Amino acid sequence: MVRFHSTLSDESVYRRFFSQMKLESRVRHERLTRVCFIDYDREMALVAEKPKTAAGPAEIVAIGRLVKSPLKNEAEVAALVTDSFQRKGVGRELVSRLVRFGREEKLGMLVASVLTDNPAMKRLLEGQGFVFESGADPDILEGEMMLG
Prior knowledge:
- By secondary structure, this protein is an alpha+beta fold.
- The chain has one domain: 3-Layer(aba) Sandwich (Aminopeptidase), CATH 3.40.630.
- It has helices at 2-6, 10-17, 23-26, 29-36, 90-104, 119-128; strands at 43-50, 59-68, 74-81, 109-115, 131-134, 140-146.
- The chain has a 6-stranded mixed beta sheet with strand order 1-2-3-4-6-5.
- The radius of gyration is 15 Å and the shape is globular.
């Protein structure tokens, strides 16, 4: 995970977390413990890896997450792809699998928040069936996808 986070540009980090987060903050032991050890009753994390080769070890290239709401029959979906693997279908595949997981879990809806200056992620999610509207924050689009 530390290596994965070191491959991300400041722009990719900002577009995923909606704020600048320094590498040191993203790879703090306490934070990585929280995001790596998940409660499978409440969330799912999928990881895409570049396989090990003679030239080097396996590498994480993308992470997708689905986090269920404790109050509603819905979950939030998010994905983060390392810069060198963006626009190659990895994020689309992760989101597609998270949508399938949401259906298997009998969720009624998936939600996602996307910065207005991230049209690629908006298009990716729209391709899966999300519909977006402006939210309370003019810089953030709120998406929904009905499952049930």
